[in-house]
Amino acid sequence: MTMEAARYRDLADRGVLITGGASGIGAALVAGFVAQGARVAFIDIDEAAGVALASQLSGTARHDPLFFAADLTDTASLKPLVDRIVAILGGLKVLVNNAARDDRHALETISETEWDASLAINLKPLPFMAQAAAPHLKAGSGGAIVNFSSIAFLLNMDDLPAYSAAKAGIVGLTKSLAGRLGPDGIRVNALLPGMVVTERQKALWLTEDSIAAMIGKQCLKRSLMADDMVGPCLFLASDSAAALTAQAIIVDGGVL
Fold first, then answer.
1. Sorting pLDDT into bands at 50, 70 and 90, what band is 2?
2. Which residues of 108-131 are buried (b: 16+ CB within 10 A; e: fewer)?
3. Does the record bear Oxidoreductase in its keywords (predicted)?
4. Which terminus of the chain is less hemmed in, N or C, by CB atoms within 10 Å?
5. Could you list the residue range(s) of the whole structural domain that residue 243 is in?
């Protein structure tokens, strides 16, 4: 699923937990960390896709990935879930907060229910996942949290008010968490993908014209794929980024 561009030997056997890992960017991240020899667990609400990915990757590397079906909007369940996952993994060194839904809304018609639902998956779980993971990361002498934001809030996109608000909030949250957790040796950074062409995006939002328009704005004249997010995430999770924290790194092919 993902091309292995670099080997981070320190990631081998490390416990890694990824949210929203059953499809799209998340699935590429799961495959990327599995290929590094990490002990990977991933969470997703889509049980069928999660089971299929875990089966697909089983036997391909040092450790088979572990899938857990869960609804991240149920924040009260996150701490016991993370505790159970970490017990099975045998420790935790990396948390990747990737889960998101980029549903479109018009300012004129968005309802309070739609707004709350967007923030409930795109922003609210992140601090509670960090809260649940932090004691385990600290017990392991530190580690890394990688939060997935987006360049959407920087592009003045008029049909993503809730999503853009959440993704901007993730950058602020990342900096706050970095300040709080840094003394415990826990690094916290954000990745801001550009327009990544996934199956969901193609099915719901993207057309040949919209893809061409974005490529026209990029320095790199090609579509960004889910695999393009794997290398930056592996780097931030690894000891190669040992002095890098509180940063928001844009991976957009050169739009911004």
1. very low
2. eebeeeeeeebbbbbbbbbbbbbe
3. yes
4. C
5. 9-196+228-250
Q: Which helix (H) or strand (E) holds 131?
A: helix 125-139
Q: Which two tokens stand for residue 44?
A: 């997703």
- Domain of 78, CATH number, reads 3.40.50.720
Where residue 222 falls among pLDDT bands split at 50, 70, 90? very high
pLDDT of residue 42: 99
Of 31, 163, 194, 245, the active-site residue reads 163
Structure tokens at 137: 């990361």
Instruction: Give the C-alpha separation, 49 to 69, whole Å.
Output: 10
163 is catalytic: yes
179/163 Cα distance (integer angstroms) = 25
Q: What is the pLDDT of residue 204?
A: 87
Q: The pTM is what?
A: 0.97
Assigned domain for 186 exists: yes
Amino acid at 56: Q
- Is 206 a member of any domain? no
